Amino acid sequence: MTPVDRFPTSGLEEDARARELIGSALAETLVVEAAAGTGKTTELVNRIVAVLRSGLARVDQIVAVTFTHKAAGELKVRLRQRLDEARQEAGGGERAHLENAIQHIEEASIGTIHSFCTQILRERPVEAGVDPAFEDLAEAEQRRLYFKVFRGWLERALDEPRPGLHNVLTRLAWTGTGKPADELRFAGWKLIGWRDFRGPWRRDPFDRDAEVDRLVALVTELAKGSERCERRSDELYRALAPARELVTWVARAGPRLDYDTLEALLIKLLRDLNRDKRKGRGPFGNGISREEVLKSREALLRQLASFQDQANADLAAQLQADMQDLIDAYEDRKRSTGKLDFMDLLIKARDLLRDNREVRSFLLKRFTRIFVDEFQDTDPLQIEILLLLAGSDEETKDWRQTVLAPGKLFVVGDPKQSIYRFRRADVGLYQEVRDRLLAGGARLLHLSRSFRAPAPIQECINAAFSGLMQLSLIHI
Ligand SMILES: Nc1ncnc2c1ncn2[C@@H]1O[C@H](COP(=O)(O)OP(=O)(O)OP(=O)(O)O)[C@@H](O)[C@H]1O
Ligand SMILES: [Mg+2]
């Protein structure tokens, strides 16, 4: 069983006990979960102060990360204030420790995870294989550089036969909402954001052309059935107009229609039929009942939806392969100008920590206490970096195997407020990491007392989110 803190006490007492432990259980790894405004950041600062006061670590051995520059700035200000207050109350050796911390506070590694990575790469550029004078690209510059690379790539790519690209452009021409080139550029940007997941994506067997033929036959059957309707004003008859149009198209263009176009037309048909699902009423037509037509429409919609899922997965894998050289071109351009983007900082720091034993050993000794705020927003690369650093061994390459150094790691988070879920962090990963930490000896604490929101609002938020949390667990 995981060592979850359970006291036979009221919520308020549990809360008070949790806060007490944060300041006193300095030899334990702690995972604190709490909702907004319960004082998570305040407790993180309290814990840093407690560690510094006790002399268990010096300020330059501390790493504190959060997820925006603004939050990091606030964290520094709060820490300075609390250190000052604590110094006034302390005596003897503790006072000396606190004074030392205040004097050297600028040496603390307090910032975003990206600034922390920049710091280690600057210290060990040779081992990390980066230009010692590298510049990190701000988000806007990164985008500008990518746009330029994309324009060049698209011109080249359109001159060559690329099945995935042809397919996606056809699809976008029929079903896209914006300009195909813009949508493609966005897809490339997404791929760049996932480039740490190397290797081709899985392609399940999918006989696309045979499926297309089968579905076109089904559409033709439904369209023909609908022609037997006696009233052209019948709602069901009108709702089936997109099916009849597709059949007309296919008949007119005949063999000139390639399978990419047919695939796009079928996916467009799914969307169009779903837009108008009226059933109409009364007798339908000559020798064909309304029920029969409705049943065929439902069956077709189900099959089109399943076709769309398979076609999308197949297209994504093809496109990933066809856009690989876009990612390479982007990487080359950065390299040749000595620039690193946000993800490079994470990848290079992770590689350095994971693969270079000497550097890892040095960093493990150098940083003895790690504090993470907003832990729910950590993405897979950040988790790797933090957990490799929080371990006690120099060899494990897999963050999942890392053995926690007791007391080294302190994380606070609110799994209900992951704002980066739509980027790369997600609640499933958070839960996996939390469970691993607990299995590795960490203690889980909850804070329940809120200093911001009145209780009814909080209860409402919790109730609204609990269903979503369950759902996300099912999807993992
Ligand atoms: N023990 C406490 N007693 C009184 N006020 C507190 C206490 N802890 C925190 N506060 C106040 O509550 C407010 C919220 O605190 P804090 O920013 O630490 O919460 P948080 O949980 O980190 O919030 P968020 O979820 O927004 O990050 C602050 O104004 C802080 O000063
Ligand atoms: Mg906070």
Can you characterise this structure?
GO terms for molecular function: 3'-5' DNA helicase activity; ATP binding; DNA binding; hydrolase activity. Pfam families: UvrD-helicase. One of its GO terms (cellular component) is cytosol. It comes from Candidatus Acidiferrum panamense. The protein is of the alpha/beta class and 476 residues long. It folds into 2 domains: 262 residues, Rossmann fold (3-Layer(aba) Sandwich); 201 residues. Helices cover 62% and strands 7% of the residues. It has 20 helices and 8 strands. The chain has a 6-stranded parallel beta sheet with strand order 3-2-6-7-1-8, with helices on both faces. α10 packs across α12. The protein starts with 10 loop residues before the first helix and ends with a helix. The N terminus and C terminus are likely disordered. Bound molecules: adenosine-5'-triphosphate (ATP) and magnesium ion (MG). Adenosine-5'-triphosphate binds next to α2.
Number of strands: 8
CATH superfamily annotation of the largest domain: P-loop containing nucleotide triphosphate hydrolases
Determine the N-to-C terminus distance.
Answer: 22 Å
Task: Sketch the major β-sheet.
Answer: 6 strands, parallel
In terms of structural class, how would the helical and strand content be classed? alpha/beta
Report the order of strands and helices: HEHEHHEHHEHHHHHHHHHEHHEHEHEH
Indicate the radius of gyration in whole angstroms.
29 Å
- What percent of residues are in strands? 5-15%
Percent helix among the residues? 55-70%
Q: What's the CATH class label of the largest domain? A: Alpha Beta
Strand arrangement within the widest β-sheet reads: 3-2-6-7-1-8
Low-confidence region ranges: 1-8, 467-476
Annotated CATH topology of the largest domain: Rossmann fold
Tally of separate domains? 2
**So how many helices?**
20
* List of distinct ligands in this structure: adenosine-5'-triphosphate, magnesium ion
pLDDT averaged residue by residue? 89
Shape, principal axes of CA atoms? elongated
CATH architecture of the largest domain: 3-Layer(aba) Sandwich
